[in-house]
Amino acid sequence: MTFEKETLELTNNAGSTSSDEESGADLKYEQELIRRVDWRLLPILGALYSIALIDRTNLSNANVAGMNKDLGLNIGNRYSIALLVFFIPYMLFELPSNLVLRRVGAAKWLGTIAFCWGVVMIGMGFVHDWRVLTVCRTIIGFFEAGLFPGCVYLVSSWYVRFEVQKRMAIFFLISVFVGGFSSILAYGLMQMDGVGGLAGWRWIFIIEGIITVLVALFSFLAIIDFPDKVLAKRNGRFLSATDVEIIKGRIERDRADSIADPITWAKVGKHLSDFKLWVFALLFMCTAVPAYAFGLFLPILLEGMGFTAGMSQLLSTPPYIFACIASFTLSYFADKQRVRGPIIVAQAVMCISGLATIAYFSTVGIRYSGVFIGMAGAVGNIPSVLSYQSNNIRTNSKRSVSSAVQVGFGAVGGIYASLVFRSVDAPRYLPGLWATIACQLAMIVIVGFMSVYFKMQNRKQKEGKHLEGHPDFTYTL
């Protein structure tokens, strides 16, 4: 029996897999068990990444709240530099962080790095020099580097392949939904201008930093470890030994990597020689560009459309809500139909349409509708590209390396977005919008190439070739 046939049996209802009553009861319990994992794993990871996104992108909110004048960020390219420096350590330390993650444990590692960047975020509320702000952003990039690849690695380790995109979407979209309200929160904190003798933009950093520290402390207790390590931790009270074996059995039938293979530098080198990892990374870089462009520049783009600073903050939220609904709908469809590439292409086309609308229509209402369409495509492709990678690799060590490299290239996308949206191009930012559209066109070409490649390899698998080191593994198109 192939992996895909076995996975189909696991994800269908009891009646469609067996007429045997005991087998039906077992499958029902499996689904109850997975829902229990969902509720324990996804909300806390979504909460952690929510605060990461807020802390990463709140510079734009603080900028329109007066920080640019107080710190002189409106001089030259200082604002772009403050944005850019975050991504350099973010990119460099993702792979080392994932290698440390399994040794230290998910709760300890992810909670610790979140606590550390929260403390730095609080400190940003008291800086008086743009260079000190830039150093703080660099430090935050260092600590945040381990969070997203660690979360992706952890989520992909708990579920079978055609369950994973919905879960990636839930985890990521929790953060997008909460992060979408960050502009409203920032608008409220702006009203604290003068409290304690501090400007409103300073309170954005201080209060959001305190929230980060509190969520980080809670995550020490809430995050569960990898399936093969969970019983060795306090999370053993959450799952029994039998429960863990059921989950590991599902993973073993799906892709035969429920037990982690030791990570060595030789294996890291071997995995890095697989061109697919770099293709997945390039895809993620391309989809990160519009996501960061909206996250870092949306209030500024809205100001360029003629809205006030306050309205720009408030109007930044509705597109995120729409993007969450659209993304989850397409992710559900992708898992149900067992496809990845066509969904990525469809969302890239949505993003292109939205960006072109922002760029070339003169009516403010139509341009604002372009934000909804463009953001839905950009946000939706984050879980889609992550799942594309997760479905087409095997072994824990490769999953660890691949998720780190892939998310690391997302930082390259952040650098790209920081540089192409230049102050001199205000208020329409046409060069930046076109540079972002180019990335979406590249995604369509890359997915087309990989679809042809995967089809060729799957045909060879039917002729006896082992893909990803296993006789029954096939690539997901």
From TrEMBL:
Listed under GO cellular component are: membrane
Annotated compartments: Membrane
Query: What membrane topology is given?
Result: Multi-pass membrane protein
| Extent of Polar residues compositional bias | 9-18
Superkingdom as given in the UniProt entry = Eukaryota
Q: Major facilitator superfamily (MFS) profile domain spans which residues?
A: 41-460
Which Pfam families does UniProt cross-reference here? Answer: MFS_1 (PF07690)
Residue span of region Disordered: 1-23
Major location, coarse class? membrane
Question: What are this entry's molecular-function GO terms?
Answer: transmembrane transporter activity
Q: Which residues cross the membrane?
A: 75-93, 105-127, 139-160, 169-189, 201-224, 277-302, 314-334, 341-362, 368-388, 400-421, 433-454
Record has Manganese as a keyword: no
Name of the molecule in the record: Major facilitator superfamily domain-containing protein
Q: Which UniProt keywords apply?
A: Membrane, Transmembrane, Transmembrane helix, Transport
